[in-house]
Design a protein that fits this description.
The protein is α/β, with parallel strands linked by helices and 272 residues long. It has a domain of 184 residues: Rossmann fold (3-Layer(aba) Sandwich), CATH 3.40.50. 45% of the residues lie in helices and 14% in strands. It contains seven helices and five strands.
C-alpha cells in the first residue's frame, strides 16, 4: 500500500542528490520474518532509480531500530541470509549493504545529527511511550472505550500528541536536508477516539480478560463455599482426651515424630 509513496519519495530524494552511502532507518523493525522485507523493497527501489539515472551503485547502511527488549539476536542471525538474497537478486556491481541494530525508543534521539537519508516506520507509531497519567481509574477497560471517563480519553490524546511531537522533533535533527520519511500508522475515519474502527481488537481482548477474571472470582467463591479437603491433622494430646491412658501408652510406643520445624519460619510462613 505504501510502495507508490515510497517510490515517489526515493525518486524525489535522488533528484536532490545521490549519496555514495545511503543511510536508511527502519524504526520499529520487529524481529520476525518481515524484518528485512521492507528493507529489501527499499533498497530495490533505490537501485531501480539509480539504474534509470545511469549512476554507480551506492553502498547501504541500514539501521534496524526497536526497543531494547526486542529479539535482536534473531535479527542478526538473519543478516547473512538477507545479504545473500541481495547478492543473488541484484546485478553485478551492486554496492555493499551493512546492517546495524539500534536499540532504544524512537521517541528519543537515536542517531547523530544529519546522518539519515531515508526513514521508514510501519505500524509502530500507534504505540505510545507509556501508560497515560490518568486522573480517574479506567475501570473495566484496558484502553479507550465508550464507557471510559472523559479524563481517560483526554489523557490518551495528550500522551499521543506529546510522543508524536517528540518523534518528529528527533527525526528533524537526524535526517539530512532534503531527506525523506515514510510513516504508516493505524488510524480512523471519524472523530470519535473510542471508535471501534480503531480499537475493536482491544475491546475483544478486554472482554476476554473480564471473562477470565469473572471465572476466577467464581472459582474463588466455590473454593470458599463448596470445596473442602477431607483431611485432618490430629494432635497426640487430643487423642489422650478421648481415649484412656492404656491407649496413650500404646501410642507412645508406636508413634514416631517427623519434625517440620525447619520448614516453618518465625513469621508463620513456609520455607520450601
Amino acid at each position: 500500500m505504501t510502495r507508490p509513496m515510497t517510490e515517489a519519495a526515493i525518486t524525489e530524494l535522488y533528484n536532490t542528490f545521490s549519496p555514495k552511502t545511503w543511510c536508511i532507518a527502519d524504526l520499529g523493525c520487529s524481529s520476525g520474518p518481515n524484518t528485512f522485507m521492507a528493507v529489501f523493497d527499499l533498497i530495490k527501489t533505490v537501485d531501480k532509480r539509480r539504474k534509470s539515472l545511469g549512476l554507480e551503485s551506492p553502498e547501504y547502511q541500514v539501521f534496524l531500530n526497536d526497543l531494547p527488549t526486542n529479539d535482536f539476536n534473531t535479527i542478526f542471525k538473519s543478516v547473512p541470509e538477507f545479504q545473500e538474497k541481495l547478492r543473488n537478486e541484484m546485478e553485478a556491481g551492486f554496492g555493499q549493504c551493512f546492517v546495524t541494530g539500534v536499540p532504544g525508543s524512537f521517541y528519543q534521539r537515536l542517531f547523530p545529527s544529519r546522518s539519515l537519508h531515508f526513514v521508514y516506520s510501519s505500524y509502530s507509531l500507534h504505540w505510545i511511550s507509556k501508560v497515560p497519567e490518568m486522573e480517574e481509574a479506567n475501570k473495566g477497560n484496558i484502553h479507550m472505550a465508550n464507557s471510559c471517563p472523559a479524563s481517560v480519553i483526554k489523557a490518551y490524546v495528550k500522551q499521543f500528541e506529546k510522543d508524536f511531537s517528540s518523534f518528529l522533533s528527533c527525526r528533524s535533527e537526524e535526517i539530512v536536508t532534503g531527506g525523506r520519511m515514510v510513516l504508516t500508522l493505524l488510524g480512523r475515519k471519524n472523530e470519535n477516539p473510542c471508535s471501534k474502527e480503531g480499537y475493536y481488537h482491544w475491546e475483544l481482548l478486554a472482554m476476554a480478560l473480564r471473562e477470565m477474571v469473572s471465572e476466577v472470582f467464581q472459582l474463588m467463591f466455590k473454593l470458599c463455599t463448596h470445596i473442602s479437603i477431607i483431611s485432618f491433622t490430629f494432635s497426640y494430646f487430643m487423642l489422650l482426651d478421648y481415649y484412656n491412658e492404656t491407649i496413650g501408652i500404646i501410642l507412645q510406643k508406636w508413634i514416631s515424630r517427623l519434625s517440620l520445624d525447619h520448614l516453618i519460619s518465625k513469621d508463620g510462613g513456609y520455607t520450601v
